Amino acid sequence: MEMIIDFPEGARVDAHFGPYTIPTDQPPMGGGTGSAPTPFAVFLSSLGTCAGIYVLGFCRQRGLSTDGIRIVQRMYNDPQNYGMLGKIELEIQVPPDFPEKYHDALVRAADQCAVKKHFEMPPSFDIHTKQVEMA
After folding, report:
1. 43/51 Cα distance (integer angstroms)
2. pTM
3. Which residues contact 16 (CB under 8 A, 6 or more apart)?
4. Phi/psi of residue 31, each to 5°?
5. Are the C-beta atoms of residues 27 and 38 closer than 8 Å to each other?
6. Which one of 56, 58, 87, 115 has the fewest CB atoms closer than 10 angstroms to its CB?
7. pLDDT in tens, 78-116
8. Calpha distance 122→129 (Å, rounded)
């Protein structure tokens, strides 16, 4: 998979892949206009939405309604580690009529999230420059 990252204007940095564009920006205090989420916010949202895909799949496979289900994601900084995240909590909220027997299974489904697994076993990075001729 390849993504093209470009710099459309101001503090915006966009990612393009396939037919999609993911826009990002910085808040005004960071030199942007706040026209889109920050790259870090997009990164964090991928965790909750990925877990959501697994919860959705679990419910669909069993014919369970997702009405009233939502995931609340909370992030906690680690003050010992320069403000880096120390904990991420995913709380799967279910309505009162959601079958109790599936609560633990929902947690196990969300735990299969591929984004979370990459947190647990991060890839290596190769960051370098390459000079290209401009057309």
Report:
1. 13
2. 0.87
3. 3, 4, 5, 6, 22
4. 95, 0
5. yes
6. 87
7. 988 887 999 999 999 999 999 999 999 999 999 999 999
8. 22
